[in-house]
Amino acid sequence: MFTEAEQLYAARGDRRNALYAHLGLIRSTMEQLSLPEVSEELGAELDKNPLLQSGKELRLFCLMVLVTSMESLTLRRCAVIGKLR
C-alpha cells in the first residue's frame, strides 16, 4: 500500500506525499529492516532534505519514525544481552 502510494505520488511530482508514503513504509516494515541503516538514512534525510527542513508536520513524522527505529534497536540489543546472561 505505501509502496504504491509512494510511486503514484512520485509519478505526479508530489514529492511531499511521496516522502510521507516512504516514511510510512519504513515505519510499517521496520522489523524487517536494518535498524542502524534506517536510523542513518532518516538522520541524513533530516539534515539534507529541504522538505523535511521546511515542513514542520513532515519533519515531526520523520522524527517519530526515527525515534521508533532507535527504540526498536535498543529493545533488540537488550533482548540479545538478556540471552547472554
Give the H and E element order: HHHHH
The largest pleated sheet is described as: none
Structure class: mainly alpha
Roughly what is the average pLDDT, rounded to an integer? 90
Number of helices: 5
β-strand amount: under 5%
Number of domains: 1
N/C terminus separation: 41 Å
Helix content: over 70%
The rough form would be described as: elongated
Oligomer: single chain
Round the Cα radius of gyration to an integer and report it: 15 Å
Number of strands: 0
- Low-confidence stretches are none
How would you explain this protein's 3D organization?
This protein has 85 residues and is mostly helical. It has one domain (2-84). It contains five helices and no strands. The radius of gyration is 15 Å and the shape is elongated.
Question: Notable features of this structure?
Answer:
mainly alpha; 85 residues; 86% helix; single chain
